């Protein structure tokens, strides 16, 4: 297959608005780079010297790219939840170290596990993301090799970043923290290569409601009356739960906005199209996935007032379960059993999005766009459980598709 074949396959994903910005294609081909486009999303760019290094590269890309297909785990020994997918065990958890717990977005579990994996010599490095040291309004992939690195990378980054290009594919001496779509692409790649579970990198993921545009972050900066060159630090969450959107200025002063306003009013309203068609926003292809276990009010709705962070922690594989139990025994994380039905009650967005996904896929197709293929998720059954919202989602998606035909719209 020629380099034109791979370019055509990648361009088709982008053109139809199905690119997640995960960087899987850049992991396959070193002459593809991930860059922000004019809409503020990470997209693959082919360098002029691009040459296809393998005749099977297009075939591999088409199987691993989450903008083309995603397949549910098939292990019959795993439990199953209609919203959260296949899992080995589920827990309410937090980091034992209070500094880590408070620095992290919810309860510091991913930060604590990342530092522990390195300190216990289970891996030489952990791939993650962090604030750009040179341009702090941006987010970049990083290689974490110490506890100090892990703490610097703590906290959610509600912005485009592609971590996969940093992943080593020739051995298990690296762990990976990434979005659910990145975890899916990594699993597909290692499945195709026939890599045993023990020889794969440990994959950690998190609950994801979608990737906001970088333009949304820049809009928040302007809304707070700040020029980009005056920004010294930028944190989307952390230092509390859920924590505020916080800009530290070079003059030593701060500007803040609540999580509810920053995410609900701005960032969450500027998501890329593919995220609105996501079949797995809860890290179903990772070894361990972590999300917010929000407090609820009397009616069961999540409450975003500041509190000590608590997470839902899901072991997706036997290896993930063994790692969690070892980390708990080592005093790294605290775990107590948790019924995922309770999590569904305070993660209503994930539930509704999953139930109405088939309708949005149909609306998108009726609007003339190709959509990803999802296997094993029983989307028809979920759609039937919520027909009124499914009907609204189908019509709304169709209207938005024909009204805004750009690749990110």
UniProtKB/TrEMBL annotation:
Domain Coenzyme F420 hydrogenase/dehydrogenase beta subunit N-terminal: 92-168
Pfam families for the chain: FrhB_FdhB_C, FrhB_FdhB_N
MF terms in GO: 7-hydroxymethyl chlorophyll a reductase activity
GO biological process: chlorophyll cycle
Domain of life: Bacteria
InterPro entries: Co_F420_Hydgase/DH_bsu_N (IPR007516), FRHB/FDHB/HCAR-like (IPR045220), FrhB_FdhB_C (IPR007525)
Domain Coenzyme F420 hydrogenase/dehydrogenase beta subunit C-terminal: 175-339
Name this protein carries in UniProt: Coenzyme F420 hydrogenase/dehydrogenase beta subunit domain protein
Gene source species: Pseudarthrobacter chlorophenolicus (strain ATCC 700700 / DSM 12829 / CIP 107037 / JCM 12360 / KCTC 9906 / NCIMB 13794 / A6)
């Amino acid at each position: 297959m020629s380099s034109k074949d791979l370019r055509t396959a990648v361009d088709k994903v982008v053109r139809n608005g199905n690119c997640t910005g995960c960087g899987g294609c850049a992991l396959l081909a070193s002459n593809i780079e991930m860059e922000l486009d004019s809409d503020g999303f990470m997209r693959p760019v082919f360098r002029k010297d691009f040459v296809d290094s393998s005749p099977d590269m297009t075939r591999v890309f088409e199987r691993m790219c989450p903008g083309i297909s995603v397949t549910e785990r098939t292990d019959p020994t795993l439990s199953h939840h209609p919203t959260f997918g296949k899992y080995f065990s589920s827990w309410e958890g937090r980091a034992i170290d209070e500094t880590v717990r408070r620095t992290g977005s919810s309860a510091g579990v991913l930060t604590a596990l990342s530092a522990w994996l390195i300190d216990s010599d289970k891996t030489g490095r952990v791939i993650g993301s962090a604030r750009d040291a040179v341009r702090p309004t941006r987010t970049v992939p990083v290689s974490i090799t110490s506890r100090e690195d892990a703490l610097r990378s703590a906290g959610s980054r509600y912005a485009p970043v592609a971590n996969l290009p940093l992943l080593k594919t020739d051995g298990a001496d690296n762990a990976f923290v990434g979005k659910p779509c990145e975890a899916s692409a990594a699993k597909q790649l290692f499945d195709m290569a026939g890599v045993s579970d023990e020889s794969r990198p440990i994959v950690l993921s998190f609950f994801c409601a979608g990737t906001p545009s970088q333009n949304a972050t820049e809009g928040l900066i302007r809304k707070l009356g700040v020029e980009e060159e005056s920004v010294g630090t930028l944190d989307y969450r952390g230092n509390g739960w859920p924590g505020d959107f916080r800009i530290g200025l070079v003059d030593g002063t701060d500007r803040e906005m609540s999580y509810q306003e920053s995410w609900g009013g701005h960032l969450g309203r500027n998501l890329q199209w593919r995220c609105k068609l996501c079949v797995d926003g809860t890290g179903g292809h990772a070894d361990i996935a972590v999300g917010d276990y929000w407090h609820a009010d009397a009616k069961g709705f999540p409450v975003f007032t500041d509190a000590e962070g608590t997470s839902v922690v899901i072991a997706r594989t036997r290896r993930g379960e063994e790692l969690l139990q070892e980390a708990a025994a080592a005093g790294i994380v605290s775990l107590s059993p948790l019924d995922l039905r309770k999590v569904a009650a305070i993660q209503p967005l994930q539930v509704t999005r999953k139930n109405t996904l088939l309708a949005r896929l149909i609306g998108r197709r009726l609007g003339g766009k190709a959509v990803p293929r999802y296997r094993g998720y029983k989307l028809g059954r979920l759609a039937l459980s919520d027909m009124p919202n499914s009907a609204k989602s189908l019509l709304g998606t169709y209207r938005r598709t024909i009204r805004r035909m750009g690749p990110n719209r």
